């Protein structure tokens, strides 16, 4: 079966079934990642006192050790399962089914809408406490004091960014490398979400997970930004991508969210509180403040982009058959 038809089958399966309700393979993988982190992410020396030059070289060696342990944990978590996916995809008769199921398990298009739509519905009903609670399931920022606009802005940003991470990038790596590609990507992205923090616990250990995820998302993110631009306010989206993306702290989220905000013709970004700390984030996009309808338009933008990708795959497959 062609990669285009396999892609359509995987996306269709997600549209019909959504995420598995009783058990999801990524939940089991999360437990494995937690066990590996407990095993490998251990401090090996106390922090240096100010002016302690004598132990500086030894302390820097230990720091490099933390990074190497993060690489080891990443390899143990990701590569055996990627190899397993590759071997299973080679099985006669059922290899195609393994491919479809791998994409289905990795993609999260229906789940994205299932999380975003209740936020929009609560905002339309002026139920701000419910909207805050629902958007809290989508974002890592503090939501207890968000107003109507801030809730809508947070949900819209999440749809645009997670559309890239959880939908398009998974599809990209599936098209490029099949089941092992999508498994490699999804597991790497999950480890970045678990380990890729810039704090005392993960700054060194999670460095590899964060950098690998940046590399794997580099091309997909820019294709997503282009997709958003083509399906929305194209000129404004391209302008925002060019001028605003470099101001964002993430090399991949910047293009996606700037182009997405421009495509929707809405203002996103701005201040947000993460773990009790206020972050003054740059503004993204141009236009009116976000509202309930902005969330719904963002979901529609992601869906239409997926349909465009599948159409290109099918047409391309026919042309080169």
Automatic annotation (TrEMBL):
It is a multi-pass membrane protein. Keywords: Cell membrane, Cobalamin biosynthesis, Membrane, Transmembrane, Transmembrane helix. The keyword Cell inner membrane does not apply. The chain crosses the membrane at residues 71-89, 166-185. It comes from the Bacteria. The keyword Repeat does not apply. It is found in: Cell membrane. Pathway: Cofactor biosynthesis; adenosylcobalamin biosynthesis. GO terms for cellular component: plasma membrane. One of its GO terms (biological process) is cobalamin biosynthetic process. InterPro entries: Cobalamin_biosynth_CobD/CbiB. NCBIfam families: cobal_cbiB. PANTHER family: COBALAMIN BIOSYNTHESIS PROTEIN CBIB. Converts cobyric acid to cobinamide by the addition of aminopropanol on the F carboxylic group. Belongs to the CobD/CbiB family. HAMAP family: CobD_CbiB. This is Cobalamin biosynthesis protein CobD. The lineage of its organism: Bacteria, Pseudomonadati, Pseudomonadota, Gammaproteobacteria, Pseudomonadales. The gene is cobD.
């Amino acid at each position: 079966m062609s990669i285009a038809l396999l892609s359509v089958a995987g996306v269709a399966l997600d549209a019909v079934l959504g995420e598995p309700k009783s058990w999801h393979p990524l939940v089991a993988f999360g437990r494995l990642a937690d066990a590996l982190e407990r095993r490998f992410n251990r401090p090996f020396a106390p922090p240096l006192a100010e002016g302690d030059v004598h132990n500086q070289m030894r302390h820097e060696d230990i720091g490099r050790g933390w990074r190497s342990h993060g690489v080891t944990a990443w390899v143990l978590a990701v590569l055996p399962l990627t190899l397993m996916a590759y071997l299973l995809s080679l099985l006669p008769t059922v290899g195609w089914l393994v491919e479809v199921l791998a994409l289905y398990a990795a993609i999260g298009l229906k789940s994205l809408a299932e999380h975003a739509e209740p936020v929009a519905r609560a905002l339309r009903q002026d139920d701000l406490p419910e909207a805050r609670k629902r958007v809290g399931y989508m974002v890592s920022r503090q939501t207890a004091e968000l107003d109507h606009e801030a809730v809508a802005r947070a949900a819209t940003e999440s749809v645009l960014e997670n559309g890239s991470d959880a939908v398009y990038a998974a599809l990209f790596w599936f098209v490029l490398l099949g089941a092992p590609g999508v498994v490699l990507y999804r597991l790497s992205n999950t480890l970045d979400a678990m380990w890729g923090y810039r704090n005392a616990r993960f700054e060194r250990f999670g460095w590899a997970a964060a950098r690998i995820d940046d590399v794997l998302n580099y091309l997909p993110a820019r294709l997503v930004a282009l997709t958003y631009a083509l399906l929305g306010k194209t000129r404004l989206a391209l302008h925002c991508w060019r001028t605003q993306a470099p101001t964002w702290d993430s090399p991949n989220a910047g293009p996606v969210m700037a182009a997405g905000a421009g495509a929707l013709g809405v203002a996103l970004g701005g201040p947000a509180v993460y773990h009790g700390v206020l972050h003054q984030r740059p503004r993204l996009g141009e236009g009116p403040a976000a509202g309930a309808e902005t969330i719904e338009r963002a979901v529609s933008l992601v869906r239409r982009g997926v349909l465009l990708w599948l159409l290109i795959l099918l047409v391309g497959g026919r042309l080169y058959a």
